[in-house]
Structures are given as structure tokens and as C-alpha cells.
Amino acid sequence: MTKRVKDIRKRLEALNVDRRCFKLTNRHLEQQVVRQRETHSFVHEEYVIGRENEKNHLLELLLNTNMDMKENVSIISIVGIGGLGKTALAQLLYNDEAVRVHFELKMWVCVSDDFDVKTIAKKIIESKTNDEMDRVQQELRKKIEGKRYLLVLDDIWNEDRELWLQLLTLLTDGAKGSKIIIITRSERVAKISGTSSPFFLKGLDEEQTWKLFSQLAFVDGKEPENQKLVSIGKDIVKKCSGASSKSSLQGKQVKDNFIAKALLR
After folding, report:
1. How many other CB atoms are there within 10 angstroms of residue 171's CB atom?
2. Which CATH architecture has domain 51-200?
3. Spans of all domains in the chain
4. What's the pTM value of the predicted model, to 2 decimals?
5. What is the arithmetic mean of pLDDT over 77-90?
6. What ranges in the chain are assigned the alpha helix state H?
7. With 0-12 CB in 10 A as exposed, 13-18 as middle and 19+ as buried, what is 184?
8. How far from chain centre, in Å, is Cα 88?
9. What is the mean predicted confidence (pLDDT) over 212-239?
């Protein structure tokens, strides 16, 4: 047992030398909880790669006041499997200067599993009181009445149309041109929300995925000269299959992946 511990120590010492040679950096990774999560509107734009076309297409929809002539409020759904970067794309839109100027009011709410109309309404008006539902409804309607607003509802899982209609009833008093962006993995969620044409987000191609991985894994985002590390990185990128969040996570953990593989050899 003692001999094995010594062997592991030797390997770790050797890997520490490799780390300095490869210029690998330590990055703190926050604990993540699947589905039970809280998102926000801020984004590091330099870490969102390969989404210029998608952003421009959705910007046109957001800034188009004639998109839906029948209702003041229209709904845009961003649909795709987990890890494609749906939230990051919405964050780009939310923080765009043209969007800031166009909408009088902007709100970001992470919904996740709990599609409770009262809770969501409270989140939208940022109320922390224990008011009854009718009071919350009045506050929400007053907040958005006559204003052209943008509301992002992230991580929607609810497939109960009745619950969605209850929430939508509270959101119809905005001015013409108001928009609601729904971020979901479920095509059914997009359908029951009344979205006319859901936007299906596709994965990044291999070149874009490698660029994102390199940005997070290597010093200054530059591809290292050491081909051993490049080979390991590109193997990881292939397994990510165009998922930007997986690429980001793997990029941040590349040092730990390298150590684990070496110890198991």
C-alpha cells in the first residue's frame, strides 16, 4: 500500500511539471444542480461563440413591432436539448443595446420545475411580501400596464396549458410590441405557450466547439504548442457533440481530466 501511495505521489509530481509546461490554469467551478437552478441575465459575451446568426435572427423578431397584429404581447420560444447554450443566447439578446433602448421594461425570471403562477408573478414584480394572489396580480398588471416590455422565462418545464394560460392572462396588459422569451428543452412547452414558430437551437460545429474549449482551457485562449495536450483537448471536444455548456465545463476541468487519465493508466 505504501509503495502504491509513493507511486501516485511520483505521478502527481510529474503531472505538476506537465501542468507548468502545458500552462494549464486553475479555475473555480461553482456547484451546479440539474433543473433546480437559478439563472440570471448577465453574460460574458466573449464566452458565447458561434451564435451571431442566431442572435441576429432573434433580434429581428424581438424588435419587430408588427410580428403579431392581433395581440400586444407575442411569444418567442428558444427550444433545444440541455447544454446547447439556450440561456446564454437569451442573455446576449437581453443585454443587447438595441433591446435596452427598445423596451421600457426588462425582466428575467428562472422558473425551473415549479410552475406556480403566484410564485412566478411574485418573481416578476420582485415582491418579497406575503400578499394574496389577487394583490400580486394587481401589482404585476400595474407594473407592465401600457409599457412595452421584454420578459425572459428561463428553464420552463411546465406542460400544463391551463397553468400557462393563467400566467399569460396577467401579462397581456403590456404595450404593443411587448415580447416574452421562453427557454425550454420541450417542444410541447413551446406549443402550449402559443409560440407561432419556435426557434430550435442547434449545436456548434467542431471548429466553434474547439474555439470555445480553447478560450476557457488555455492561457489567453490560445492553442498550446504541445500536441499531446491539443490531442487530449480535441478528443474531449468530439465527445461534447456541439454542446456549448459541456465544452465550457470540460474546458474549465481540463486539468482535472488530464490528471485523472494519467493516474488511471
Report:
1. 21
2. 3-Layer(aba) Sandwich (3.40)
3. 19-31+204-264, 51-200
4. 0.59
5. 86
6. 2-22, 52-63, 86-94, 97-102, 117-125, 133-144, 161-169, 187-192, 206-217, 227-240, 244-252, 254-264
7. buried
8. 4
9. 74
